[in-house]
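Action item from last week, closing it out:
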Amino acid sequence: MERKDLEQYKEKLSLLSEKEETLRKKYLQDLSLGNINGPLVGYASIDRPWLRHYDVLADASNINMSMYQLLYKYNKDNLNAVAMRYFDFPITYKKYLSDIKKEALALKGLGVKEKDIVLLVLPNVPECRSLIYACNMIGAVVYPINPMLSQMDLGKIINENNVKTMFMYEGFYEKYNSVAKDVSNVVITNGSESVPKWASVVNNLLAKINHKAKEKIVYDDRFMNWHDFLKKRVKDNIKPYYVPNEKAVLLGTSGTTGTPKSVWFTNENANAMVIQHELGDMNFAKGDVFLDILIQSISYGFAVAHYCSVLGVESVLIPQMVSDIYPLLEKYKPSHLTAGPIHYNVYAKVCRENNMAPLYGKNMVSGG
């Protein structure tokens, strides 16, 4: 099939009704399983051979909504449960959902609109998770950034996407403040805003996450701290934004070329991952503990944040970069862990050299 014909065919497929799309999935599934004979295009993105593994007639109603709407639907009656644990301080769903709404109102106060791209240059802190849903609630596109990105690459992302709002961890200020010169609103967080001052765990929290920038932060009309950001809240009743198949999240990847490039996720993409974990055989259950050592700027780090948040799985957030996970497994005894090959290599070495028994939960997954 010529490229021009292929693009025209894709355009026709995009116009199918929901009922027609379901019937097409069933047709493709039968082709893949050999139940019927018929032509295939030869492109996996169109032929979708993976449908042989799915119930294509299953109810998709929980996929066809925004990420925020799915989070709220699953947890509006789960408010006292713990959504996240951050330096041993529990953050309930009541606080989580409240923070999301406050941040959404503040984003509107900054002038953030539907389809605007908002950058998150943040480690694995609670504010990164809540901001993803706050942006989603008002229809803005969220773009978590890997803090190992060069100044030049971040500047390119800012310019190419006409970024007007970004959130930056205090410890990254020295590296990135110069390339943020064209950004209208830069909100600085020190990673402790989600934890109340009176909590005893706060006493050494800032030292633990090594937050201080060497260069003094200059606050002005563009650079503001977290508390000044929240003061921007408008008095408004927000109706959660949702338009089918619109872009909701941008993530960077360099997996095939070594050059950073952006990949879009729709709400439906993200929610499908949640439903897959809910209905699959990984045995996710409310109250399970997930040891979260990943950042949301990588796709499976973002996926972990979303499906744990929706499914009522308690996430233990680790904001520091760690390689030895054995002490964390020993302390938190998680039901689930997703990590990179380096973590498991160090884990196996620690167990072997110290003659220690491996620690397991329900699922230990490797990616990257």
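Closing note: The mean pLDDT is 89.
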